C-alpha cells in the first residue's frame, strides 16, 4: 500500500480508502456485522487505513457498523472520516440540518455510533453556498477541534462545476475536500484542483469507477434492473457513457490489467488527488482495489518517502 499526506492535515492516509454508503442499506443489500468485519479485516490486511462514512448512510447505521468493529479492534489503526448536514428518512430521502446546534447534536451522535472519542476528518456534506456561509457553524466546529472531538475539518462538495467552497476552504479551517472525479468526469481539473493545490488541500476522489461504468462489467447495450440506481439514468446518456468506456478500454487500459484497477490508478495519478474512496461490498473487491496502489506513479507530489 502507498500512503500520502492529506494536504495540510496531519493525516497520512492510504491512497485506497473504503467508501461505506452501501452499509446504510440503500443499495439493495442489508449488511450484517460479520460482513463489515470481513471487509475491514481485509482492508487492514492490505494496509488500507482510511474509512469514509456519513451520519445519513442509514440513520447512523453505517457509522454503527464501523463503530462496532472499531470497538473490538485497534482504533488507532484507522483514520475515520464522517460527514454532517442531514437526517436520514428512508431510501434516498434526507432533510437538511445546518444550524450550529443541529450539527453539534449530529457530531455527538456520530461519535457515539462510531464508538470513538474523536473523528479524524469531519466533513460538511454537500452543502449549498448559503449553508456554507455560516460563521456560527464554523466557529462551533473550531471549538470542537480545540476540545479534541474533531481532529480536522473538510468539505464534501455538492457540485463539480463550482469552486466557491473550495476557494474558501482555508477560511473555515478545512484541510481537505471530497469531490466526484473519474475518467468520465474530469470537471474538477478546471477549477477545483488548481484551487486545492494553491491551498495545499487534500483531495479525496469519490465515485472513481463512475457508478460502476468503469468497472469493466458493462458493454454497450447493457441494461440495468429496476432496483439498480443506474436504471434511473437517462438511457441516451447511458449509451454514450458505455460507448466511451468501450473506447477507453480499447485504447487506454493495458492488456491484462482489470479495468477497475486501472480506473482507480488513473485517478491517483493526478497530482492534486490524495486518495480514492471506492465503495466495497466484499473482501474480494477490497483486494482488487488495493492493487491499484501499485499502478499509481511513485513520484506523486504527496507521496510519503
Separation, N- and C-terminal Cα atoms: 13 Å
Count of individual domains: 1
State the CATH superfamily name. NADP-dependent oxidoreductase domain
Helix content: 25-40%
3D structure, described in words:
The protein is α/β, with parallel strands linked by helices. The protein has a single domain (3-211, 257-295), classed as Alpha-Beta Barrel (TIM Barrel). The chain contains eleven helices and twelve strands. It has helices at residues 33-45, 61-72, 100-113, 129-132, 135-147, 164-167, 192-199, 235-251, 259-268, 283-290, 292-295; strands at 3-5, 12-14, 18-19, 50-52, 79-84, 86-88, 94-96, 121-125, 153-156, 174-180, 202-206, 275-276. The strands form three sheets. An eight-stranded parallel β-sheet has the order 3-4-5-8-9-10-11-12. Strands 1-2 form a two-stranded antiparallel sheet. Strand 4, helix 2 (61-72) and strand 5 form a beta-alpha-beta unit. The protein is globular and about 50 Å long. The model has no long low-confidence stretch (mean pLDDT 91).
List keywords for this structure.
305 residues; alpha/beta; TIM Barrel
